[in-house]
Amino acid sequence: MAVPEHTVHYLEIVTTDAEAVRNLYEKSYGWHFQPMAPELGNAYVTELPGGTLCGIRAPMHTEEKPMVRSYVRVNDIKTTVQRAADLGAKILLERMEIPGHGIIAIYMHGGIEHGIWQIP
Question: Does any domain span residue 94?
Fold first, then answer.
């Protein structure tokens, strides 16, 4: 199911115990996660009602702390990144393609990491 622009496309949960959090969500909400997806940082991924994806994964490096980051769907990631920078955001991850999934970018604003995601 296609997620409309400016809605949450991907909810990313970074935790030191991805399997335990996955089990909690499966038992609490009845979500069914796919096996780990290497292209998404070895996240367990599920599609939620309405089409939003949720991925649960471990930190990918020692500096990455547990967090929840949402990725908003956009049609033009280049313009969105520039607009965020113009509004004072610090770009943490420039546009990066994830083969088969689209293009993402991450910026920091207001002490919060924000993700954006463009689907090809």
Answer: yes
Pairwise CA distance, residues 80 & 19, whole Å:
33
How far apart CA 13 and CA 71 sit, in angstroms, is 11
pLDDT tens per residue, range 66-89: 999 999 999 999 999 999 999 999
Q: Which band of pLDDT confidence, cut at 50, 70 and 90, is reported for residue 1?
A: low
> How does DSSP classify residue 37?
B
Q: With beta carbons less than 8 A apart as the criterion, state whether 66 and 12 touch.
A: no
Q: For Cα atoms 45, 38, 24, give the angle at the middle one, nearest 5 degrees.
A: 35
Can you tell me the distance from the alpha carbon of 66 to that of 17, in angstroms, rounded to the nearest whole number?
10
Number of domains in the chain: 1
Residue 2 clears pLDDT 70, i.e. is over it: no
Please report, in angstroms and rounded to a whole number, the separation of the first and last CA atoms in the chain.
Answer: 14
> Is 3 inside a domain boundary?
no
Q: Give the pLDDT score at 115.
A: 98
